[in-house]
């Protein structure tokens, strides 16, 4: 009985400290990793890509701001998911913060 308790404790200890190393996710791998970690494997399997939907959104977006003070804000951007997980390695916890 005592061996069984030690075995369960050992399994729980190994599971509590996973061997997590920082990884680099870029492009499609970054998008798929975000979907997988944020929404689960059921959603990640059924992801469809629509080229035409993406193309329409690019053409309907305005390129110049309508107000003069908005121009300064457009060029400044905060560090995001690509900065944290593509330009340098990141942990899964950092990726999960963007869910």
TrEMBL record:
InterPro entries: Ins/IGF/rlx, Insulin-like, Insulin-like_sf. SUPFAM superfamilies: Insulin-like. It comes from the Eukaryota. Keywords: Cleavage on pair of basic residues, Signal. The keyword Signal applies. Pfam families: Insulin. One of its GO terms (molecular function) is hormone activity. Residues 1-16 form the signal peptide. Residues 23-99 form the Insulin-like domain. One of its GO terms (cellular component) is extracellular region. The keyword Phosphoprotein does not apply. Belongs to the insulin family. This is Insulin-like domain-containing protein. The lineage of its organism: Eukaryota, Metazoa, Ecdysozoa, Arthropoda, Hexapoda.
């Amino acid at each position: 009985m005592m061996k069984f308790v030690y075995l369960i404790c050992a399994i729980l200890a190994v599971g509590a400290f996973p061997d997590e190393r920082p990884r680099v996710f870029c492009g499609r791998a970054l998008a798929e990793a975000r979907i997988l970690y944020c929404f689960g494997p059921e959603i990640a399997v059924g992801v469809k890509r629509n080229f035409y939907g993406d193309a329409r959104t690019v053409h309907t977006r305005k390129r110049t701001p309508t107000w003069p003070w908005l121009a300064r804000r457009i060029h400044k951007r905060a560090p995001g998911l690509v900065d944290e997980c593509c330009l340098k390695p990141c942990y899964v916890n950092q990726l999960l913060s963007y869910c």
